[in-house]
Structures are given as C-alpha cells and as structure tokens.
Amino acid sequence: MEPTFSYLDELSGDNQAFKLKIIQIILEDLPKDFDSYTYALGIQNHQRAAEFVHRITQKIAFLQMTESIKLADEHEMQLRQGDTTYIKEFNEIVDKILTFLENSGSS
Amino acid sequence: MNCIVLDDESVSREIISFLSEKERDMKLLGSFSSPIEAFKLLNQKEVDVIFLDIHMPGFSGFEFIQTLKSPPLIIITSSDMERAADVFEYESIIDFLKKPVDPDRFQKAINKARRLLGNKDKPGEKREEHEKPNPNHLYINIDKKLIKLDAQKISIIEAKGDYVSILGDDINYRVHTTLTNLIQKLPTDLFFHVHRSFVINLDKIIDIQDNTILIDKSVIPISRIKRLALMQRLNLM
Lengths: 107, 237
Fold this sequence. Notes:
The complex is a heterodimer. By secondary structure, chain A is mainly alpha-helical. Chain A has one domain. Chain A has five helices and no strands. Chain B folds into two domains: about 1-130, 3-Layer(aba) Sandwich (Rossmann fold); about 135-235, CATH 2.40.50.1020. Chains A and B meet through helix 1, helix 2 and helix 3 of A and helix 1 of B.
C-alpha cells in the first residue's frame, strides 16, 4: 500500500504551513527512530527495538498505510517475543515512507 | 478550559496543539514529551484537561494518572486499541482517541469535557459531594461479613493476582478486588500508588532510599517516575 497525505490534507484544510510542518517533523524524527531501532536490534535488545517500532508505526498511520500498520504492529508484537521475522518488510515500509516524503512533502 | 498534552511523539503533540488552537475556549498551557515537565506545570497551574498518550519510554499514561493526587479530566490518545478497555479502571478518563486523531472525534471529546466541566460547580453536584461516604472508613467483604477498616491504620496494600492484601496496625486481610478499585475508596491525600502492585499510606513511611521505601518492617519498591511524583507530595526540607 502506498502512502498518502489524505489524513494530513483533511486535518490541515487550507493550512499548508501546518501540513509542511508535520511532514518536516516526520522527516526529522523517522530516521532517528529508525537508527535507534536498528541499534537496538544490533545489540539484541528486542524490547527496545519494539518500542521504536511502536513510535514508527504512529508515523505510518499519519500516512494512511493500513496494511503496513498491520505488519508493523505484528512486527512489534513478534519482537517483544524475540522474533525478528518481519525485519526486511518493516525496513521496506520505512524506506518507502522516507522516499515518499522526500519527493513530495517538504519541497 | 486549560489543557496540556503529554506524548513522546512530536507529531501527535503538534496535531493536538493544532486542533486545540481552533477551539476558542481552549488554552493549551503546555505540550510535553516527559512527565517531569508536566508535573511541574500541574503543580503551578490549574489544568482542566490532559491529552495523554499511553505508551511512552519508561512509563505509561496510566502510571502517570496514578501519580496525580487529583487528576483533571483525561483524554487518552493512543494507537493501541488493546489498552482501550483499561480506561474503565480510571474515573478521570473521559474519552479515548485513536491515533491518528480524527478531528470530529476530537470535537466530541472536547464537548464531553465541556459538559463535565460545566457541571462541576453546580449546586446539585455539591449536594452529591456531601452525600459521598466518609473516605476515612472502608468496608471490606470477608466471608460474607462487612468489616470496617480505619484508613489511617492501613500501611500497605499489595495486589496479588485477583486479590489484594491489606496490611497495617492489627490489620491483615485478603480481599477479592483490584488495586485500582480499592484506591478509589481511599482518601487521596493519604495514600499513594508507588508501584504497579503497591499502594502505601504516606503517614507510615519510615524512610526512602533509592528505589525503595521502608514502611513498618516492609521494604516496598518504587519506580523512578513514581519516586519523582512522591517527592512532590512530601514535605521536603
């Protein structure tokens, strides 16, 4: 499922400055959260990694990616049990969001 | 209507702030990512409504509520619908907004807060206040017998599965209830929820060291966030 700005558009109305502000915050925060998630995975701290997946999932939700949210939720739950099955799929979602935002949002 | 936001997610804070600013009678006093700053403001100013996230690093929104002596109205904001049922454990929670927050649902939650705040000083409510049972006494049901307890004499209440143990001066009872239910029957100025499984009588504290509290002869654990809240309740030199 592709990301969209439908939620942000409805929320912002005519206030484009607010929409851009939100996009900018996600662009700043998401790579940091993802770095922290990757670090936690690297040191086998799956609980911590799950916390960052939870944070990232909220950002996915702003972009109305329903199927991706389900996968991220599943990934978070699995990580809490030490299961890293969905790492690749989750990484792809984050990449997709960052590419979408960089190409369309803050310019 | 004075409100604050407590959420570790900056986008969520921005969105609640944005929606609040559209309401003419709402004043956003602060937007916080950590409970420490929120505590400071709550000690200084009168807050009517808190928009509160559930999942935050190192603590939960529910733990935050338990540290408040007199919680204002709480509107939970969370993407975790599995915790939605937990809100019924807290009288102060008036609504649950699923993230990302829908502007229409936000409006409904605010209207509910307006109604409740509008009613709080009406004479009928005050009369109801007088009719409330005396919180200094508590009746527990043991073997089909109602036993009267003096709240002042209770030292420690510990959750143990489906039961709670009530311990104190000549008191040692095991009651089939939850800690959350029991807390609501106790005087809020005397008791403090120090840990997920423990409530203590503040008058019974002997000493506090690091993350433990000595009460009578028992050492009770206290979490970092609860310790901070406890410090604000104590008469420190």
